[in-house]
């Protein structure tokens, strides 16, 4: 998972940004922009030329940005007994809780640690530590809901 955004990032106003919401909105925005740019370019080339293409592309991009921004959502953060965030709500977590469950399922199916690491795009040591309970095995003591702003990144 090289080059991915951490699951949560602190913002100046002490709110948290959710990776899942951001990724979905960003993918929707990028796909809509690609469609808008292609459509705008096709219409502009037929109508006037280069000047119209630039204007229509800018207008389409502004429309997509405004339409994607929503109200946000709430995310549950998990804490251990010392009050530190754990699991996928930890700020440096690269694997979601579902990914960790999938690692255990793949191991039960007979896959090797190397093949699991390649499939999950993480290190062999990380997979080994997860399977042996050295990381991602702390119990959740407390959880808290935080409002997420998907466009605050």
Automatic annotation (TrEMBL):
Segments traversing the membrane: 35-68
UniProt keyword annotation of Repeat present: no
Domain of life: Bacteria
Residue ranges occupied by any Resolvase HTH domain in the UniProt entry: 95-133
Protein keywords: Membrane, Transmembrane, Transmembrane helix
Pfam families noted in UniProt: HTH_7 (PF02796)
An MF annotation (GO) of this entry: DNA strand exchange activity
Transmembrane helix in keyword set: yes
Family matches, as Gene3D superfamilies: Homeodomain-like
Name this polypeptide is given: Resolvase HTH domain-containing protein
Organism encoding this protein: Saezia sanguinis
């Amino acid at each position: 998972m090289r080059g991915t955004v951490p699951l949560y990032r602190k913002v100046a106003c002490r709110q948290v940004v959710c990776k899942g919401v951001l990724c979905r909105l960003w993918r929707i925005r990028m796909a809509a922009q690609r469609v808008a740019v292609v459509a705008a370019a096709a219409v502009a080339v037929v109508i006037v030329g280069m000047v119209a293409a630039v204007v229509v592309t800018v207008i389409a991009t502004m429309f997509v940005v405004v339409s994607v921004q929503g109200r946000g959502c709430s995310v549950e953060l998990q804490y251990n007994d010392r009050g530190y965030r754990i699991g996928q709500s930890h700020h440096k977590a690269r694997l979601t809780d579902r990914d960790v469950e999938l690692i255990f399922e793949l191991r039960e199916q007979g896959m090797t640690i190397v093949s699991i690491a390649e499939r999950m795009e993480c290190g062999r040591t990380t997979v080994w530590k997860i399977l042996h309970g050295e990381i991602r095995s702390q119990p959740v003591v407390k959880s808290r809901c935080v409002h997420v702003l998907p466009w605050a990144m």
